[in-house]
Amino acid sequence: MLSPRALVLRAPGTNCDHETAHAFERAGAIAKRVHVRALAAKPALLDDVQIVCIPGGFSYGDDIASGRIFALELALRMGDALHRFRDRGGLVLGICNGFQVLLQAGLLLADAAGRPRAALAHNRSGSFIDRWVRLEVRGPKCMFLTGLDAPFELPIAHGEGRFAARSAADLAAFDAAGQLVLRYTADQAGASTNPNGAAADVAGACDESGRVFGLMPHPERFIDATQHPAWSGRLEAGAAGAGLAVFANAVKAAS
């Protein structure tokens, strides 16, 4: 059986595309980094892949808002092609800036007209935050999170990561539908690890199918145990980091 193909979509300012492509390759996919302008010129590139990922970084310098320019470019130049890819069963992953892009482009948590029903606002602290957080999966809907049953840790690095729904009713609807699939949870001392003030402690969300997933933490930065700052004595050298499961699940679902 041929390995699934993953397209890692980058733009000016993207800075996590190499690590993300490597994570997909470690998980068994054939990964290719593609510039957004190359995809705009040839949307048929999507016909040859099973997974599309928008990685982290500061696309277009986040000059208007995080992910906004990248999202506009996708929506205006490739929106139809990406929606067709999603509707035919393709997997879509957005990490950090990529999560911001998915929301603003109307590819995730949007209404029938494609308008965003959620956004990622400035951290409550008003500061950029770079640290590790403890997470837990809520419900079985998201294909990227299968098997991550126990709390686990991933690093974050963002200034605009505070999940906010358009209304309290929207937040309740997402929760009832099981789409708020990844939450910040308490550490072993019982203290909250919600770093940004996200509503309902949301760190990641998926669409109704579970095949489109966005998250603020960076799974590509924890695919090996030794990438954790406290790995010695806690994790076995050579073991996989928790983030690798996100990519392995995508590869399995696309196979």
Summarize the structure.
With 255 residues, this protein is an alpha/beta fold. It has helices at residues 17-26, 36-41, 68-87, 97-104, 168-176, 244-254, and strands at 5-10, 30-35, 51-54, 91-95, 118-121, 129-137, 152-158, 162-165, 182-184, 202-206, 212-215.
Structure report:
By secondary structure, the chain is of the alpha/beta class. The protein has a single domain (5-254), classed as Rossmann fold. The chain has helices at 17-26, 36-41, 68-87, 97-104, 168-176, 244-254; strands at 5-10, 30-35, 51-54, 91-95, 118-121, 129-137, 152-158, 162-165, 182-184, 202-206, 212-215. A nine-stranded mixed sheet has the order 2-1-3-4-11-10-9-6-7. A two-stranded antiparallel ribbon has the order 5-8. A hairpin with a 5-residue loop joins strand 10 and strand 11. The model has no long low-confidence stretch (mean pLDDT 94).
Instruction: Give the overall shape.
Output: globular
CATH level-1 class: Alpha Beta
Number of strands: 11
Provide the spatial order of strands within the biggest beta sheet.
2-1-3-4-11-10-9-6-7
Give the percentage of residues in beta strands.
15-25%
Oligomer: single chain
Order of helices and strands: EHEHEHEHEEEEHEEEH
Percent range of helical residues: 25-40%
Compute the CA-based radius of gyration: 17 Å
Biggest pleated-sheet summary: 9 strands, mixed
Write the CATH architecture name: 3-Layer(aba) Sandwich
Q: End-to-end span in angstroms? A: 8 Å
Extract low-pLDDT stretches. Answer: none
CATH superfamily: Class I glutamine amidotransferase (GATase) domain
Task: Kindly name the structural category.
Answer: alpha/beta
Task: Give the tally of structural domains.
Answer: 1
Number of separate helices: 6
Write the CATH fold name.
Rossmann fold
